[in-house]
Amino acid sequence: MLLDEPTSDLDAAGIRWLVKQLARWRDGLVVVSHDRQLLRTFTQFFIVAESGCRYLEGTFGQLLADLTREREDGERAHRGEMNRLLAREEHNAAVRRRRQRKKNLGRIRELKRCPARIKLNDKRSYKQESQGKRAVLQKERMGGVRDAARASRRALSVALPLELALPRLPEGAATPVVRCDAVTAMAGGRILFRALSLEVARERIAVCGANGSGKTTLLEIALGLRTPAAGQSRCQSSRIGYIAQNADNWRLDESLAELVALQRATGSVDTIAGVMRAHRFPLALARRPLVSLSPGERLRAALICLARRSPPPELLVLDEPTQHLDFAGIAALEAVLSAWPGGLLVVSHDDELLDAIGVARRIELG
Fold first, then answer.
1. Residue 5 resides in a domain
2. Cα–Cα distance measured from residue 223 to residue 323, given in angstroms and rounded to the nearest whole number
3. 313: domain CATH number?
């Protein structure tokens, strides 16, 4: 049986059911997945990456440890190659400068002695020939060093980390950003939830429940994007940063570089490059329209924009942020959200994520 991302649109109960069913399966099974709960039930892994493909056997925890160790070893090897290349090029530059000085001094001495022109030409021809051969050999050696450096770089895993230069929020007691008073939501004549009241400031709240229970609907009512069937909601949108499922509300024709330039009132290349370097976001991706990026890349771009916004949002509202991230991306997202200084209102089926980011309260719908 071949399964390609089988947990992609399952809720927590569906994932638990699938894990139990696969545990009973006794025939051949190949699964493509980034779901950590599912992957923990496997002991044989085939890793596919730009640096190559390989087979690993052991627990999922051992797999993560092996991948981390290999990445660190690869980065150390790459740094060593880069340092050797830099030292070799600095040495060659010093040798060229020394030879140029000797060449200039030799010309002065030859002019003083005033030898015959034919002798000067013979010496010049010999030196040009010998130096030409030396330059060819040197170029070949440097080419080999550069090839080794490129090979070590290809051996590194290609990652898009979610590191952020986090903003600083105003001091003092935070007033509520979102307030829902006895709101009721309906869909297709069915009541999703009734008389729900909610107040969110700088705290961490998760909205959980089965598919179709109204999690996204609750977020949209809280943000004023949908009118409730009963009750009322209020929010201060200037204090909120919102990223919908698949970052669909960030499917813009503008690029991340253009958005950052508007935020900073400057579009200089150095400024944009500095921002991207601070967040470790590839400049080539930053120049592409957000609509052309993958959902995971668009999520990172949206987080960067929100982190650079002035004033920064006091509440981040995220709807299924891990949906298109691999487990390395999920771990990076956990680190960012754990360090986020403001509040979080998150819809997710991933209990590990919610525990890792310090969710203090859960709203269970359904």
1. no
2. 21
3. 3.40.50.300
Domain hosting residue 273, numbered range: 178-365
Q: Per-residue pLDDT averaged across 228-245, rounded?
A: 92
Q: What is the pLDDT of residue 158?
A: 46
CB 253 within 8 A of CB 289: yes
Long-range contacts of 12-18 (CB under 8 A, 24+ apart): 12/208, 12/210, 12/349, 12/351, 13/210, 14/211, 15/349
Report whether pLDDT(184) > 90. Answer: yes
Q: What is the mean pLDDT of the chain?
A: 82
Q: How many CB atoms lie within 10 A of CB 1?
A: 10
pLDDT at 344: 94
The predicted structure's pLDDT at residue 174? 74
**Which residues, at least 6 apart from 153, have a Cβ–Cβ distance to it below 8 Å?**
78
What are the residue ranges of helices labelled H in the chain? 12-24, 36-39, 60-113, 117-154, 215-222, 256-264, 269-279, 283-286, 295-308, 327-339, 351-356
Q: Domain check: are 188 and 336 in the same one?
A: yes
pLDDT of 346 > 80? The answer is yes
CA distances from 328 to 152, 272, 291, 334, 359 (A): 21, 26, 23, 10, 21
> Are residues 192 and 120 part of one domain?
no
Q: Is residue 19 part of a domain?
A: no
Structural domain total, the chain:
2
Query: What gap in Å lies between CA 337 and CA 20, rounded to an integer?
Result: 31
pTM of the predicted model as reported, rounded to 2 decimal places: 0.70
Among the residue ranges 13-22, 133-142, 190-199, the one predicted with the least confidence is 133-142
> According to the model, what pLDDT value does residue 156 have?
46
Identify whether 52 is part of a domain: no
